[in-house]
Structure formats: C-alpha cells, structure tokens
Predict the structure.
Amino acid sequence: MKLAVIYDSRTGNTEKAAEWIAEGMNGVPGVEARAFSIRSADEAFIKDSKGVVIGSPSYCALMTPEMHAWMLGSAMNLELAGKLGGAFATEQYTHGGGDLVVQSILVNELVLGMLCYSSGGEYGLPYIHVGPVAVNSNMEAHNSLENYKELFVIYGGRFAKKATELFG
Ligand SMILES: Cc1cc2nc3c(=O)[nH]c(=O)nc-3n(C[C@H](O)[C@H](O)[C@H](O)COP(=O)(O)O)c2cc1C
C-alpha cells in the first residue's frame, strides 16, 4: 500500500519531519511511503496512495500561504476524497501555533472528503491529540527538532497501521 507525506518547507525543518513520518510508515509491513514537497509532488503516486499526511511550518500560527494555495489548488485534483488524512507542523516557539496549523490542515482535509486520523489516545503514550508538532532550536536553546524524531516516527507507524487496517 502506498502512503504519501506532503510538506512545504523553506529551511528544511518540515522536510525533515516529513521524512521521519515516512520512515515510521515504511516500518509497517506492506507499506511504501514517500515524502514530497508541494513543489515536486508525484501526482500519480499520491493518487495511488490510500493515505496522505500533510505538513507545514507555522507562519504566524497559520500554514504557509504556499501550502494554503496548494490545498486550494493542486490538492483538489489529487483524488484525496476517501483517503486517510493526517497533519503535522514545525515551529520555533513552544507556543508558536503548531496545533492551530495542524487543525486548519485537518479542516481542509475534511472539506476534501478525507478521513482524518491522529492516533489520539488509541495506542497510549505518547498521546498525539491532533497531530505531531516539532519545535526547532532557532529561538529556544533548550529545544531541538531532533528531540521530536521519535514522536514523528511513532506517528508515521501508527498512521500506516491504521491505513493498513482500513484499506489493506
Ligand atoms: C514568515 C514566518 C513566520 C513564522 N511564524 C512563526 C510562528 O508564528 N510561530 C512559530 O513558532 N514559528 C514561526 N516561524 C518559524 C517557522 O515556523 C519554523 O522555523 C519552522 O520550523 C520552519 O520550517 P521550515 O524549516 O520547514 O521552513 C515563522 C517563520 C517565518 C519565515
């Protein structure tokens, strides 16, 4: 089963987070996961995917304008309806709006007819309420994107397991 992770990223943090999710997905037997920038998304692979996870940096607590334009444009032609959907974000402040970015991506996915999933409390700790958010070390010396790698890999694995249960 194919799964896609799609992101916008200017300085590489969200790209790295997307790769971690794909890594977690690829740990589930029978899954082929790939991560794509919105600038080079493989349309055929995404159309063939049973699940799609979408991520953006927090820009003033919103998804980037480029991601929003992509969701209102290209995403409409990718046959996303009926696929499992998830969302993630990166940010530079612990309270930098990442959860709001995740929420707004999920709302866009619902409008596109996707079935949204975060894992929530299904697997116990770590709880992932709406989607994973990673904080980089730009402004908070105690933080590091790498601190969140395990969470993103776990999320990818859970998402792939659910997609396999539903569509495998
Ligand atoms: C225009 C702009 C607005 C931003 N607004 C926020 C913000 O509201 N909250 C926050 O925590 N980080 C904010 N950031 C920081 C980015 O979200 C953060 O560095 C992110 O990890 C960048 O992702 P990227 O490396 O994938 O481009 C902003 C960055 C830019 C360039």
